[in-house]
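Regression report. Comparing outputs from two consecutive submissions.

Submission 1:
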Amino acid sequence: MLRLVRKEGDSVKNIKLARIDSRLSHGKVVSYWTEYLNLDTVIIANDRVYQDDFEQAVMNLTMPEGIAAHYLRLDQVKNYVENNQNEDIFLIVESPRDLEKILEKDYFIDRVNIGIIHLSQGKKLLTEEVAVDEKDLEIFANLISNDIEVFIQLSPFACKRDLSDFFIEA
Protein backbone atom coordinates (compact mmCIF):
# COMPACT_ATOMS: atom_id res chain seq x y z
CA MET A 1 0.00 0.00 0.00
CA LEU A 2 1.22 3.45 -0.91
CA ARG A 3 2.23 5.38 2.17
CA LEU A 4 2.17 9.15 1.77
CA VAL A 5 3.33 11.48 4.49
CA ARG A 6 2.20 15.03 3.93
CA LYS A 7 4.63 17.65 5.16
CA GLU A 8 4.44 21.43 4.94
CA GLY A 9 5.67 22.58 1.55
CA ASP A 10 5.56 19.01 0.22
CA SER A 11 3.25 19.70 -2.69
CA VAL A 12 4.56 19.89 -6.24
CA LYS A 13 3.21 23.33 -7.06
CA ASN A 14 3.72 23.17 -10.80
CA ILE A 15 1.55 20.06 -11.31
CA LYS A 16 -1.75 21.91 -11.36
CA LEU A 17 -3.82 18.82 -12.11
CA ALA A 18 -3.20 15.10 -12.47
CA ARG A 19 -5.78 13.28 -14.60
CA ILE A 20 -6.47 9.58 -14.88
CA ASP A 21 -7.95 8.76 -18.27
CA SER A 22 -7.77 5.45 -20.14
CA ARG A 23 -7.66 7.39 -23.40
CA LEU A 24 -4.78 9.62 -22.25
CA SER A 25 -5.01 12.54 -24.70
CA HIS A 26 -8.25 12.36 -26.63
CA GLY A 27 -10.44 14.82 -28.49
CA LYS A 28 -10.85 18.15 -26.76
CA VAL A 29 -9.88 16.93 -23.26
CA VAL A 30 -6.43 18.53 -23.23
CA SER A 31 -7.67 21.70 -24.90
CA TYR A 32 -10.47 22.20 -22.37
CA TRP A 33 -8.35 21.56 -19.27
CA THR A 34 -5.26 23.50 -20.35
CA GLU A 35 -7.34 26.53 -21.28
CA TYR A 36 -9.48 26.33 -18.14
CA LEU A 37 -6.44 26.04 -15.85
CA ASN A 38 -4.21 28.30 -17.97
CA LEU A 39 -1.53 25.61 -18.36
CA ASP A 40 1.31 25.51 -20.85
CA THR A 41 2.69 21.98 -20.51
CA VAL A 42 1.18 18.50 -20.73
CA ILE A 43 2.94 15.38 -19.57
CA ILE A 44 1.55 12.10 -20.84
CA ALA A 45 3.15 9.57 -18.50
CA ASN A 46 2.85 6.10 -19.95
CA ASP A 47 5.56 3.51 -20.50
CA ARG A 48 3.89 2.11 -23.64
CA VAL A 49 3.20 5.46 -25.33
CA TYR A 50 6.73 6.63 -24.51
CA GLN A 51 8.00 4.02 -27.00
CA ASP A 52 5.32 4.51 -29.66
CA ASP A 53 6.06 7.35 -32.10
CA PHE A 54 2.86 6.75 -34.03
CA GLU A 55 0.63 7.00 -30.95
CA GLN A 56 2.48 10.15 -29.89
CA ALA A 57 1.89 11.66 -33.34
CA VAL A 58 -1.83 10.89 -33.06
CA MET A 59 -2.00 12.42 -29.57
CA ASN A 60 -0.14 15.49 -30.80
CA LEU A 61 -3.15 16.15 -33.02
CA THR A 62 -5.20 16.72 -29.84
CA MET A 63 -2.75 19.24 -28.40
CA PRO A 64 -3.74 22.90 -28.57
CA GLU A 65 -1.39 25.33 -30.26
CA GLY A 66 1.20 26.68 -27.85
CA ILE A 67 1.01 23.72 -25.47
CA ALA A 68 4.18 21.69 -25.01
CA ALA A 69 3.54 17.93 -24.91
CA HIS A 70 6.04 15.58 -23.29
CA TYR A 71 5.75 11.80 -23.43
CA LEU A 72 7.56 10.27 -20.47
CA ARG A 73 7.98 6.94 -18.80
CA LEU A 74 6.42 6.83 -15.33
CA ASP A 75 9.86 6.81 -13.73
CA GLN A 76 10.87 10.01 -15.59
CA VAL A 77 8.09 12.25 -14.26
CA LYS A 78 9.71 13.23 -10.98
CA ASN A 79 12.97 14.28 -12.62
CA TYR A 80 11.18 16.28 -15.33
CA VAL A 81 8.98 18.11 -12.84
CA GLU A 82 11.84 18.93 -10.50
CA ASN A 83 13.94 20.29 -13.38
CA ASN A 84 11.12 22.40 -14.86
CA GLN A 85 9.68 24.25 -11.89
CA ASN A 86 8.75 27.24 -14.06
CA GLU A 87 6.20 25.22 -16.08
CA ASP A 88 2.56 24.78 -15.09
CA ILE A 89 1.87 21.12 -15.79
CA PHE A 90 -1.17 19.03 -16.63
CA LEU A 91 -0.17 15.42 -15.88
CA ILE A 92 -2.14 12.64 -17.58
CA VAL A 93 -1.85 8.94 -16.72
CA GLU A 94 -3.77 5.93 -17.97
CA SER A 95 -4.66 4.26 -14.67
CA PRO A 96 -4.75 4.64 -10.90
CA ARG A 97 -1.83 2.20 -10.71
CA ASP A 98 0.26 4.48 -12.93
CA LEU A 99 -0.46 7.44 -10.67
CA GLU A 100 0.44 5.36 -7.64
CA LYS A 101 3.81 4.48 -9.23
CA ILE A 102 4.51 8.16 -9.80
CA LEU A 103 3.56 9.09 -6.24
CA GLU A 104 5.84 6.37 -4.89
CA LYS A 105 8.73 8.45 -6.24
CA ASP A 106 8.41 10.56 -3.08
CA TYR A 107 6.51 13.66 -4.03
CA PHE A 108 2.99 14.90 -3.76
CA ILE A 109 0.12 15.95 -6.00
CA ASP A 110 -2.77 17.97 -4.58
CA ARG A 111 -5.56 17.29 -7.09
CA VAL A 112 -6.49 14.19 -9.06
CA ASN A 113 -9.16 14.31 -11.73
CA ILE A 114 -10.69 11.07 -12.97
CA GLY A 115 -11.93 11.24 -16.54
CA ILE A 116 -12.72 7.92 -18.13
CA ILE A 117 -11.53 4.54 -16.93
CA HIS A 118 -12.72 1.89 -19.36
CA LEU A 119 -14.62 -1.18 -18.28
CA SER A 120 -12.45 -4.28 -18.56
CA GLN A 121 -12.25 -7.75 -17.08
CA GLY A 122 -12.33 -7.62 -13.29
CA LYS A 123 -13.68 -4.06 -13.16
CA LYS A 124 -17.14 -2.85 -12.19
CA LEU A 125 -18.79 0.43 -13.03
CA LEU A 126 -18.54 3.08 -10.34
CA THR A 127 -20.22 5.60 -12.67
CA GLU A 128 -21.13 5.40 -16.35
CA GLU A 129 -17.62 6.57 -17.27
CA VAL A 130 -15.49 5.07 -14.51
CA ALA A 131 -14.85 1.36 -13.98
CA VAL A 132 -12.78 0.21 -11.01
CA ASP A 133 -11.50 -2.90 -9.31
CA GLU A 134 -10.57 -3.40 -5.66
CA LYS A 135 -6.99 -2.17 -6.20
CA ASP A 136 -8.25 1.05 -7.84
CA LEU A 137 -10.59 1.64 -4.89
CA GLU A 138 -7.73 1.03 -2.47
CA ILE A 139 -5.56 3.57 -4.30
CA PHE A 140 -8.37 6.16 -4.33
CA ALA A 141 -9.15 5.63 -0.64
CA ASN A 142 -5.46 6.06 0.15
CA LEU A 143 -5.25 9.29 -1.84
CA ILE A 144 -8.32 10.68 -0.10
CA SER A 145 -7.02 9.67 3.34
CA ASN A 146 -3.86 11.64 2.52
CA ASP A 147 -5.87 14.83 1.87
CA ILE A 148 -5.58 14.66 -1.90
CA GLU A 149 -8.63 16.02 -3.69
CA VAL A 150 -9.92 13.26 -5.98
CA PHE A 151 -12.88 13.95 -8.23
CA ILE A 152 -14.65 12.65 -11.31
CA GLN A 153 -15.17 15.26 -14.01
CA LEU A 154 -15.05 14.70 -17.75
CA SER A 155 -14.35 18.34 -18.57
CA PRO A 156 -14.20 21.61 -16.64
CA PHE A 157 -17.77 22.24 -17.80
CA ALA A 158 -19.21 18.91 -16.63
CA CYS A 159 -20.59 18.02 -13.24
CA LYS A 160 -17.84 17.54 -10.66
CA ARG A 161 -18.27 14.58 -8.28
CA ASP A 162 -16.02 14.33 -5.24
CA LEU A 163 -14.81 10.74 -5.02
CA SER A 164 -14.92 10.79 -1.22
CA ASP A 165 -18.72 10.76 -1.59
CA PHE A 166 -18.40 7.18 -2.87
CA PHE A 167 -16.65 5.99 0.31
CA ILE A 168 -18.57 5.37 3.51
CA GLU A 169 -16.52 5.81 6.66
CA ALA A 170 -16.80 2.94 9.10
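Submission 2:
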Amino acid sequence: MGLFNNIFSSEKKETLDKGLEKSKTTFFSKLSKAVAGKSKVDDNVLDDLEEILVTSDVGVNTTIKIIERIEKRVANDKYLGTDELNQILREEIAGLLSETNVGEATDFEIPENKRPYVLMVVGVNGVGKTTTIGKLAHQFKNKGLKVVLGAADTFRAAAIDQLQVWADRVDVPIVKQSMGSDPASVAFDTLESGVKNNADVIIIDTAGRLHNKVNLMNELTKVKRVMQKVVGDAPHDVLLVLDGSTGQNAFEQAKQFTAATEVTSLAVTKLDGTAKGGVVIGISDQFQIPVKYIGVGEGINDLQVFNKYEFVDSFFK
Protein backbone atom coordinates (compact mmCIF):
# COMPACT_ATOMS: atom_id res chain seq x y z
CA MET A 1 0.00 0.00 0.00
CA GLY A 2 1.50 3.31 -1.12
CA LEU A 3 0.57 5.06 2.11
CA PHE A 4 3.45 3.40 3.88
CA ASN A 5 6.16 4.30 1.41
CA ASN A 6 6.74 7.70 3.01
CA ILE A 7 10.30 8.48 4.08
CA PHE A 8 9.98 9.12 7.78
CA SER A 9 12.46 11.13 9.85
CA SER A 10 14.88 8.37 10.89
CA GLU A 11 15.53 9.68 14.41
CA LYS A 12 11.85 10.28 15.13
CA LYS A 13 10.93 6.91 13.64
CA GLU A 14 13.52 5.05 15.70
CA THR A 15 12.12 6.65 18.87
CA LEU A 16 8.59 5.68 17.83
CA ASP A 17 9.63 2.10 16.99
CA LYS A 18 11.29 1.77 20.38
CA GLY A 19 8.37 3.40 22.19
CA LEU A 20 5.85 0.96 20.72
CA GLU A 21 8.06 -2.12 21.18
CA LYS A 22 6.12 -3.54 24.14
CA SER A 23 2.74 -3.06 22.45
CA LYS A 24 3.96 -4.55 19.19
CA THR A 25 5.69 -7.58 20.76
CA THR A 26 2.65 -8.47 22.88
CA PHE A 27 0.23 -8.03 19.98
CA PHE A 28 2.20 -10.13 17.52
CA SER A 29 2.94 -12.92 19.96
CA LYS A 30 -0.84 -13.28 20.42
CA LEU A 31 -1.45 -13.02 16.67
CA SER A 32 1.20 -15.64 15.87
CA LYS A 33 -0.46 -18.11 18.23
CA ALA A 34 -3.88 -17.39 16.71
CA VAL A 35 -2.78 -18.21 13.15
CA ALA A 36 -0.33 -21.00 13.98
CA GLY A 37 -0.96 -23.96 11.68
CA LYS A 38 -3.65 -22.12 9.71
CA SER A 39 -3.31 -20.95 6.13
CA LYS A 40 -6.66 -19.24 5.60
CA VAL A 41 -8.38 -16.32 7.35
CA ASP A 42 -11.60 -18.02 8.47
CA ASP A 43 -14.19 -17.40 11.19
CA ASN A 44 -11.97 -18.96 13.86
CA VAL A 45 -9.05 -16.69 12.97
CA LEU A 46 -11.35 -13.66 12.98
CA ASP A 47 -12.77 -14.64 16.39
CA ASP A 48 -9.25 -14.93 17.76
CA LEU A 49 -8.28 -11.61 16.16
CA GLU A 50 -11.28 -9.93 17.77
CA GLU A 51 -10.18 -11.14 21.19
CA ILE A 52 -6.58 -10.00 20.55
CA LEU A 53 -7.69 -6.49 19.56
CA VAL A 54 -9.96 -6.14 22.59
CA THR A 55 -7.26 -7.35 25.00
CA SER A 56 -4.82 -4.92 23.34
CA ASP A 57 -7.10 -2.09 24.54
CA VAL A 58 -8.32 -1.15 21.08
CA GLY A 59 -11.84 -1.18 22.57
CA VAL A 60 -14.91 -3.24 21.69
CA ASN A 61 -16.61 -0.80 19.30
CA THR A 62 -13.45 -0.09 17.31
CA THR A 63 -12.56 -3.79 17.23
CA ILE A 64 -15.95 -4.60 15.73
CA LYS A 65 -15.35 -2.00 13.00
CA ILE A 66 -11.94 -3.47 12.18
CA ILE A 67 -13.28 -7.05 12.07
CA GLU A 68 -16.17 -5.98 9.80
CA ARG A 69 -13.70 -4.32 7.42
CA ILE A 70 -11.59 -7.48 7.28
CA GLU A 71 -14.68 -9.66 6.77
CA LYS A 72 -15.51 -7.58 3.69
CA ARG A 73 -11.98 -8.10 2.38
CA VAL A 74 -12.28 -11.85 2.97
CA ALA A 75 -15.65 -11.92 1.19
CA ASN A 76 -14.33 -9.95 -1.78
CA ASP A 77 -11.04 -11.81 -2.14
CA LYS A 78 -12.67 -15.20 -1.47
CA TYR A 79 -9.39 -16.61 -0.20
CA LEU A 80 -7.09 -14.69 2.07
CA GLY A 81 -4.03 -16.31 3.57
CA THR A 82 -2.97 -15.69 7.15
CA ASP A 83 0.36 -14.40 5.81
CA GLU A 84 -1.57 -11.45 4.34
CA LEU A 85 -3.34 -10.64 7.61
CA ASN A 86 -0.66 -8.25 8.90
CA GLN A 87 -0.85 -6.08 5.78
CA ILE A 88 -4.65 -6.09 5.77
CA LEU A 89 -4.78 -5.12 9.44
CA ARG A 90 -2.27 -2.39 8.81
CA GLU A 91 -4.28 -0.93 5.94
CA GLU A 92 -7.65 -1.12 7.67
CA ILE A 93 -6.41 0.46 10.92
CA ALA A 94 -4.72 3.26 8.97
CA GLY A 95 -7.99 3.77 7.09
CA LEU A 96 -9.91 3.96 10.35
CA LEU A 97 -7.49 6.52 11.80
CA SER A 98 -7.72 8.55 8.58
CA GLU A 99 -11.42 9.12 9.22
CA THR A 100 -10.65 10.93 12.51
CA ASN A 101 -7.25 12.50 11.97
CA VAL A 102 -8.23 14.58 8.96
CA GLY A 103 -5.86 17.47 8.34
CA GLU A 104 -3.61 16.36 11.17
CA ALA A 105 -0.55 18.40 12.05
CA THR A 106 2.70 17.44 10.39
CA ASP A 107 4.90 19.40 12.79
CA PHE A 108 4.74 21.49 15.96
CA GLU A 109 3.00 24.37 14.27
CA ILE A 110 0.24 26.89 14.85
CA PRO A 111 -2.10 28.60 12.38
CA GLU A 112 -0.61 31.67 10.76
CA ASN A 113 -3.69 33.79 11.51
CA LYS A 114 -3.83 33.01 15.25
CA ARG A 115 -1.49 35.16 17.36
CA PRO A 116 -1.40 34.51 20.20
CA TYR A 117 -2.47 30.89 19.79
CA VAL A 118 -4.12 29.86 23.06
CA LEU A 119 -3.91 26.21 24.06
CA MET A 120 -5.83 25.02 27.13
CA VAL A 121 -4.61 21.69 28.52
CA VAL A 122 -6.92 19.41 30.52
CA GLY A 123 -6.51 15.96 32.08
CA VAL A 124 -6.44 14.23 35.46
CA ASN A 125 -3.43 14.40 37.76
CA GLY A 126 -0.72 11.87 37.01
CA VAL A 127 -1.28 11.44 33.27
CA GLY A 128 1.76 13.50 32.32
CA LYS A 129 -0.10 16.77 31.77
CA THR A 130 2.58 19.10 33.13
CA THR A 131 5.35 17.16 31.38
CA THR A 132 3.42 17.38 28.10
CA ILE A 133 3.05 21.15 28.52
CA GLY A 134 6.79 21.49 29.19
CA LYS A 135 7.72 19.39 26.16
CA LEU A 136 5.27 21.32 23.97
CA ALA A 137 6.78 24.61 25.13
CA HIS A 138 10.23 23.24 24.22
CA GLN A 139 9.12 22.18 20.75
CA PHE A 140 7.32 25.46 20.00
CA LYS A 141 10.30 27.46 21.23
CA ASN A 142 12.58 25.41 18.96
CA LYS A 143 10.42 26.60 16.07
CA GLY A 144 11.28 30.17 16.99
CA LEU A 145 7.92 30.86 18.65
CA LYS A 146 7.53 32.97 21.81
CA VAL A 147 5.79 30.86 24.47
CA VAL A 148 4.13 31.82 27.76
CA LEU A 149 2.86 29.30 30.33
CA GLY A 150 -0.05 29.85 32.71
CA ALA A 151 -0.25 27.86 35.98
CA ALA A 152 -4.05 27.75 36.34
CA ASP A 153 -4.03 24.45 38.23
CA THR A 154 -4.08 26.29 41.54
CA PHE A 155 -5.51 23.48 43.66
CA ARG A 156 -2.15 21.75 44.11
CA ALA A 157 1.02 23.57 45.07
CA ALA A 158 2.92 20.74 43.37
CA ALA A 159 1.27 21.54 40.05
CA ILE A 160 2.46 25.15 40.17
CA ASP A 161 5.94 24.08 41.27
CA GLN A 162 6.20 21.42 38.54
CA LEU A 163 5.22 23.89 35.84
CA GLN A 164 7.77 26.37 37.20
CA VAL A 165 10.47 23.68 36.90
CA TRP A 166 9.55 23.15 33.24
CA ALA A 167 9.41 26.90 32.56
CA ASP A 168 12.93 27.20 33.99
CA ARG A 169 14.17 24.18 32.07
CA VAL A 170 12.79 25.38 28.74
CA ASP A 171 13.51 29.03 29.58
CA VAL A 172 10.05 30.45 28.90
CA PRO A 173 8.07 32.89 31.09
CA ILE A 174 5.37 31.61 33.42
CA VAL A 175 2.43 33.46 34.98
CA LYS A 176 1.34 32.11 38.35
CA GLN A 177 -0.37 33.04 41.58
CA SER A 178 -0.48 31.39 44.99
CA MET A 179 -2.12 28.04 45.63
CA GLY A 180 -5.90 28.38 45.98
CA SER A 181 -6.13 31.40 43.67
CA ASP A 182 -8.93 31.66 41.13
CA PRO A 183 -7.83 29.65 38.04
CA ALA A 184 -9.73 32.04 35.75
CA SER A 185 -7.78 34.96 37.22
CA VAL A 186 -4.49 33.19 36.41
CA ALA A 187 -5.66 32.49 32.86
CA PHE A 188 -6.70 36.14 32.43
CA ASP A 189 -3.34 37.41 33.67
CA THR A 190 -1.49 34.95 31.43
CA LEU A 191 -3.32 36.06 28.29
CA GLU A 192 -2.85 39.73 29.18
CA SER A 193 0.88 39.13 29.66
CA GLY A 194 1.07 37.13 26.43
CA VAL A 195 -0.67 39.82 24.38
CA LYS A 196 1.45 42.57 25.93
CA ASN A 197 4.68 40.71 25.15
CA ASN A 198 3.66 39.60 21.64
CA ALA A 199 3.62 35.88 22.50
CA ASP A 200 2.96 33.43 19.69
CA VAL A 201 1.73 30.58 21.91
CA ILE A 202 0.06 30.66 25.33
CA ILE A 203 -0.37 27.32 27.12
CA ILE A 204 -2.75 27.21 30.09
CA ASP A 205 -2.57 24.34 32.59
CA THR A 206 -5.85 23.49 34.35
CA ALA A 207 -6.86 21.46 37.40
CA GLY A 208 -7.09 17.70 36.98
CA ARG A 209 -10.00 16.78 39.21
CA LEU A 210 -12.76 14.44 38.09
CA HIS A 211 -14.60 13.76 41.34
CA ASN A 212 -17.33 16.26 40.46
CA LYS A 213 -18.06 16.67 36.77
CA VAL A 214 -20.38 19.64 37.32
CA ASN A 215 -17.72 21.61 39.22
CA LEU A 216 -15.14 20.74 36.57
CA MET A 217 -17.49 21.86 33.80
CA ASN A 218 -18.28 25.13 35.56
CA GLU A 219 -14.62 25.84 36.24
CA LEU A 220 -13.46 25.16 32.67
CA THR A 221 -16.37 27.19 31.28
CA LYS A 222 -15.44 30.12 33.52
CA VAL A 223 -11.76 29.90 32.49
CA LYS A 224 -12.78 29.98 28.81
CA ARG A 225 -15.16 32.89 29.33
CA VAL A 226 -12.56 34.98 31.16
CA MET A 227 -9.88 34.24 28.54
CA GLN A 228 -12.23 35.48 25.82
CA LYS A 229 -12.22 38.93 27.44
CA VAL A 230 -8.60 39.20 26.33
CA VAL A 231 -8.51 37.04 23.17
CA GLY A 232 -11.99 36.86 21.69
CA ASP A 233 -11.82 33.36 20.19
CA ALA A 234 -9.70 31.70 22.91
CA PRO A 235 -8.97 28.90 23.49
CA HIS A 236 -8.05 27.81 19.99
CA ASP A 237 -7.40 24.24 21.10
CA VAL A 238 -8.49 22.26 24.16
CA LEU A 239 -5.97 19.43 24.47
CA LEU A 240 -6.91 16.43 26.62
CA VAL A 241 -3.88 14.52 27.93
CA LEU A 242 -4.44 10.79 28.54
CA ASP A 243 -2.11 8.18 30.02
CA GLY A 244 -1.88 5.41 27.42
CA SER A 245 -0.60 2.92 30.00
CA THR A 246 -3.96 2.93 31.80
CA GLY A 247 -5.72 1.29 28.87
CA GLN A 248 -9.47 1.24 29.36
CA ASN A 249 -9.25 3.81 32.15
CA ALA A 250 -8.09 6.30 29.52
CA PHE A 251 -11.37 5.69 27.68
CA GLU A 252 -13.29 6.54 30.86
CA GLN A 253 -11.28 9.73 31.38
CA ALA A 254 -11.92 10.75 27.78
CA LYS A 255 -15.64 10.14 28.31
CA GLN A 256 -15.70 12.28 31.46
CA PHE A 257 -13.76 15.19 30.01
CA THR A 258 -15.59 15.29 26.68
CA ALA A 259 -18.82 15.47 28.69
CA ALA A 260 -17.43 18.33 30.81
CA THR A 261 -15.94 20.50 28.06
CA GLU A 262 -15.40 20.67 24.32
CA VAL A 263 -12.16 18.76 23.74
CA THR A 264 -10.64 19.45 20.32
CA SER A 265 -7.49 17.30 20.35
CA LEU A 266 -5.77 14.53 22.30
CA ALA A 267 -2.28 13.75 23.56
CA VAL A 268 -1.64 10.14 24.59
CA THR A 269 1.39 9.76 26.87
CA LYS A 270 3.54 6.99 28.37
CA LEU A 271 3.21 4.64 25.39
CA ASP A 272 6.82 3.52 25.79
CA GLY A 273 6.21 1.79 29.12
CA THR A 274 3.14 -0.22 28.19
CA ALA A 275 1.75 -2.96 25.97
CA LYS A 276 -1.47 -0.96 25.62
CA GLY A 277 -0.56 1.07 22.51
CA GLY A 278 -3.79 -0.05 20.86
CA VAL A 279 -5.59 2.48 23.06
CA VAL A 280 -4.53 5.22 20.61
CA ILE A 281 -6.51 3.53 17.83
CA GLY A 282 -9.62 3.00 19.95
CA ILE A 283 -9.78 6.43 21.58
CA SER A 284 -9.21 8.24 18.29
CA ASP A 285 -11.99 6.26 16.61
CA GLN A 286 -14.51 6.16 19.46
CA PHE A 287 -14.43 9.85 20.36
CA GLN A 288 -13.81 11.17 16.83
CA ILE A 289 -11.24 13.59 18.23
CA PRO A 290 -7.87 13.77 16.48
CA VAL A 291 -4.81 12.52 18.33
CA LYS A 292 -2.35 15.40 17.94
CA TYR A 293 0.60 14.26 20.09
CA ILE A 294 1.96 11.01 21.53
CA GLY A 295 4.53 10.48 24.27
CA VAL A 296 6.98 7.68 23.48
CA GLY A 297 9.76 8.29 25.98
CA GLU A 298 10.94 10.40 28.91
CA GLY A 299 13.32 12.65 26.96
CA ILE A 300 12.41 16.26 26.26
CA ASN A 301 12.14 15.46 22.53
CA ASP A 302 10.10 12.28 23.00
CA LEU A 303 6.75 14.02 22.60
CA GLN A 304 5.93 13.54 18.93
CA VAL A 305 3.36 14.94 16.55
CA PHE A 306 1.08 11.97 15.85
CA ASN A 307 1.26 10.65 12.30
CA LYS A 308 -1.16 7.80 11.66
CA TYR A 309 1.00 6.20 8.98
CA GLU A 310 4.17 6.33 11.07
CA PHE A 311 2.24 4.93 14.04
CA VAL A 312 0.75 2.02 12.10
CA ASP A 313 4.05 1.39 10.33
CA SER A 314 5.86 1.15 13.69
CA PHE A 315 3.10 -0.97 15.26
CA PHE A 316 3.19 -3.52 12.42
CA LYS A 317 6.89 -3.36 11.59
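Expected: both submissions complete independently.
Actual: both completed, but the second showed a warning that disappeared on reload.
Relevant detail on submission 2: The CA atoms of residues 147 and 201 lie 5 Å apart.
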